Amino acid sequence: MKRLHQNHGGYHGETIDIHAVLRETADAATAAGWKGEAFYTGPDFTLTAWHRPPTTPPATGKPRRIYLSAGIHGDEPAAPLAALRLLRENLWPANAEITLIPCLNPSGYMANRRENSMGLDLNRDYRDSQSQEIRAHIAWLTPQANFDLCLCLHEDWESHGFYLYELNPENRPSLAAAMIAAVAQVCPIDLSPVIEGREAHGGIIRPSLDARTRPLWPEAFWLIQNKTRHSYTLEAPSDFPLATRVNALTVATHTALVNV
Ligand SMILES: [Zn+2]
Fold it and tell me: What pLDDT sits at residue 214?
């Protein structure tokens, strides 16, 4: 869990072959009985949403609907790798209906940079969308039923440890402390009082939901306005070894899914 001190001015760690990772993801998902739906096909990549109905429907009521996404920033390799790990482990709550998008920005990964091939930060493109990827993502999301929980998997090249953003406007039972406690067993937590310019407490940031303060919407903000009332953006520290970061995102996701 030692810090590598190699991220000066940006991410300088390992890179991944995103096409190979997404082929392995498709193999793992298919082997576990998931169904893929391609919602955008460009010249050199496809965006796919994977879906798994509950394996044991709940005795009463509707199954919980869970949404996970990863890979919207192309210099954050642990996120699609964690999606692949989660599919391979196949340890999902039996009574939940799960949607997983393993990579929203393949062209960014091809260049190991945050933005897509047009230079757009896709996680700032959910209001007045300019990119093909996010226009297609929103078009695909819009007819979906609401989700009980949304998790967006990310990395931060300059953080001192793992942290997360919570959007929970109805004050549902928070999953944040449980996720931080579980991740602390496998990865340092960023305990800074201010992270990315926002007040943080023990690795937890609860940002303002005022749309006027956010002219450029990230994915989580669109989701909270349109499809869910409970979301987390998970941030692994990319100046630590890749295996540590994949562990952090995987453990946080498992913890959220068993506690929601
Ligand atoms: Zn990110």
Answer: 78
Residues less than 5 Å from ion ligand 1, measured at CB: 73, 154
Q: Count other Cβ atoms within 10 Å, centred on residue 11.
A: 22
CA 158 to centroid of ligand 1, rounded, Å = 11
Give the list of residues 6+ apart from residue 96 with CB closer than 8 angstroms, or none.
54, 63, 64, 65, 66, 257
Ligand 1 centroid from CA 85, angstroms: 19
Question: Residue 247 to residues 10, 116, 118, 164, 257: CA-CA distances in angstroms?
Answer: 22, 26, 31, 15, 15
CA of 126 to the centre of ligand 1 (A): 14
Q: How far is the CA of 62 from the centre of ligand 1 (A)?
A: 32
Interior CA angle at 224 toward 172 and 128, to 5°? 170
The parts of the chain modelled with pLDDT lower than 70 are 211
